[in-house]
User: Fold this.
Amino acid sequence: METIAVNNSFKSEEYFINMGPQHPATHGVLRLLLTVDGEIIKKVEPDLGYIHRSIEKMCERDSYQQIVHLTDRMDYLSSHINNEAVCLTVEHALQLEIPDRVKVIRTIIGELTRIASHTLWWGVMGMDVGALTTYFYGFRDRELINDIFEETCGARLTMNYNIPGGLMFDIHPNFVRRTKDFIAHFKTKLPEYDTLLTENIIFQKRMKGVGILSKEDAISYGASGPVGRGSGYSCDVRKYHPYSALDKVAFNEALGYEGDSFARYQVRIQEIWESISIIEQLIDNIPEGNHQVATNAVIKLPKGEFYQKVETARGELGVYIISTGTKNPYRLKFRSPGFSNLSLLNRIAVGGKIGDLVATMATLDLVIPDIDR
Amino acid sequence: MTRFFSITKNIHEWLFDLMPEGLARVVEMILIAVVYLLIFSVAGLYLVLLERRVAAWFQLRIGPNRVGFQGLLQTMADALKLVSKELTGTERADKFLYNLAPYFVIISSLMALSVFPFTKDFQAFDINIGLLFLIAISSIGVIGILLGGWSSNNKFALIGAMRSGVQTISYELSVGLSLLTMVLLAGSLQLSEIVEVQKGGWLIVQGHIPAFIAFMVYMIAGTAETNRAPFDLVEAESELGAGFHTEYSGMKFAYFFLAEFINMFIIAAIATTVFFGAWLSPFGITESIPILGVLWFLGKTLILVFLMMWFRWTFPRLRIDQLLTLEWKYLLPINLVNIVFMAIVVLLKITI
Assistant:
């Protein structure tokens, strides 16, 4: 009997897609060079630089007060925390004694910023997996926080509320009441997030077991923030190097252990609850006192190297200043959380589908100006 | 072939008096086609408006409410804008296929509308294989999507088109099988006949459990057929930009867009006809005034359309492999078992 030779040498062909810099899923001007086999991702190469403004170089020419304003434009969703990072570094270098009032207000606004950033992320996360309605729910709650910010510091996004030595002005008389109102309101709205998205079976199927990042990888790639904690890597700067009033409050570090997209998702939702708890502990006991301490009009840092890190909504932001004793830094370097988190993408997205890549990228919560600076 | 109201009957007789029978038949068909085209293009536009208002309602927004009374002219204005827009295209696109694709989609959608029994004697063509015709004609649309994606010379469009091919071919089975389950009960493929059977009670009531399962499967598969969320992988705006119609502009884009909404109407209309007694009112309360049947038909259809909009604005999107798993591992086996179940129910006459 004659046997028919079956041709098993069928080969699928890899092809290349240019995702971005204008693409709805890259949330900004990130460009991803994808090598794809059908729907399966073979390689992800992030291409950066589309929004590079050389902020670090500009810092070398600016005074320390001016540098604070530039940091708004890095991770614009946690602008207050960025400001705080530079101010803390400068204050640390000058060995300024900061009033407790400033510390507490900074922490409250920092946590409000974190909530605002996470609610925006939650909305966009839903949008990336195709549930468009979440976007509006997230923005509804973020809007209330922005209103509080607007009243106190006049800005909704780029806040510029911190200055080296304290705060630019004191909090608005309504601040405490409105923050309390918001917290009370938000506590009833946050469970809606779970019923709308978290408990959805399609969403869980899209998230669970996708984009798995092991703890070892998280550490070796320098992951921080919710991305690292989703893999069980305990890396909360607020816990290990408390700054401002964070040493006075009790809170749990949100940790996940699976390392998949769903763990990262849940860590962020958990973080919102923790932030609420931090604000609740502080909002009733804002100490009286000055909202700033006097500094020289021209701040000259002593000669040396100074480093301070803070936990932004995205992870660990480090500020490294080398000073030669003049009014400008000799060199300034930001260690931005988004950059390290983005470097993971190739590691965790390869082997998944195109849809997985988008969902995974959403759980990394990238802000491109933070990566490019 | 055509059974209309008295006005249409007069036109029908006048036409047949005026010219030889063959020509009169052709002219009559063209007239019906033009009327349907006008009615359903406008209906499609208002479905777009409904979708936008429903979406706004879900999303804590107001939605379009400026153009005309309560925004009623908004989509008209949009359509005018699209008509007046320049038709752009990509370089090195397969021009012939690129231009042909939208017509496949829109024509197949509009053709499917011709067999629906909107009320007693209001049905353009009552063919005896109506249901089969509907299933057949609705699968032509995917050719347009495939051609459009393929000929655009755009990789995102191509991925979208390929997804669409896989998706539509898979879910066609479930749509067909779940409707077949109901055909077992109704005993006919002719839509007017299926309506006639339901005078004693809607088929979803008559067929109780298997009919309800068939309805669930049909709604899931039907939503997938229309390429709408949660099965909108074809367009998946966060993954592929706009999917297969990325490179289309102006009126050609509008054809795709309109076809999506008309398809949604068709899927809901089939469900209305097969499961919910088409134009029949509950308990025959308006049996004596057949013209009200149109309202009943549209009412039932719009409820199902609203259901599909509800899906779209609530659920996240499935991934391509999950989509296929759902069809081949869950819906299809359920469907096959359900057909047997229904056959037993019909055989033992344990219908309600």
